[in-house]
């Protein structure tokens, strides 16, 4: 694990020295390698630190083979065709409605529709949590793609409130 982190740190350092973009406002050659290596470094470090603090009881039983590690090895893999079809349909609707509704409204509706039925809590609380998650996702998508990467996405009201980026 330490060797992987050392290699990721070295590659991050190399990616930081890649040339910047020739177009103003667009990510350079090292943008995506730096992001992926940063994720590897962060989660790898967390995993390494957690192994140092793991108790002996947690580390005592490690599975010997794949069958022992698989908790649901007694039956076949189940695939919910209705659930997969619903997600596919909602995704197609999102792509179709992105331009007329705008990124803000379409993303919020899309995430709400995906989150709400999966939250195992009373309906009013699930609706509030799903709406909060949908709004947070919409803001993150806006800042990542419109502000950070300068991707021209159809917007309805966010540019007005945030200074016409």
Automatic annotation (TrEMBL):
Keyword Kinase: no
Alphabetical UniProt keywords: Membrane, Transmembrane, Transmembrane helix
Transmembrane segments: 35-54, 101-120, 127-149
Domain DUF1468: 5-154
Keyword Repressor found: no
Name used for this protein in its record: Tripartite tricarboxylate transporter TctB family protein
Source organism of this protein record: Parasedimentitalea psychrophila
């Amino acid at each position: 694990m330490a060797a992987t982190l050392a290699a990721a740190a070295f590659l991050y350092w190399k990616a930081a020295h890649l040339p910047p973009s020739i177009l103003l406002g667009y990510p350079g050659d090292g943008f995506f390698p730096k992001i992926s290596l940063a994720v590897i470094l962060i989660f790898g470090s967390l995993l390494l630190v957690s192994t140092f603090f793991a108790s002996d009881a947690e580390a005592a039983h490690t599975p010997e083979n794949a069958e022992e590690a698989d908790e649901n090895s007694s039956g076949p893999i189940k695939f919910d065709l209705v659930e997969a079809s619903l997600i596919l349909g909602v995704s197609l609707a999102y792509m179709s409605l992105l331009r007329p509704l705008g990124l803000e409204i379409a993303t919020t509706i899309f995430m709400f529709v995906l989150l709400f039925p999966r939250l195992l809590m009373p309906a009013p609380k699930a609706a509030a949590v799903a709406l909060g998650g949908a709004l947070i996702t919409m803001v993150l998508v806006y800042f990542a793609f419109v502000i950070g990467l300068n991707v021209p996405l159809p917007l309805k009201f966010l540019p007005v409130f945030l200074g016409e980026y």
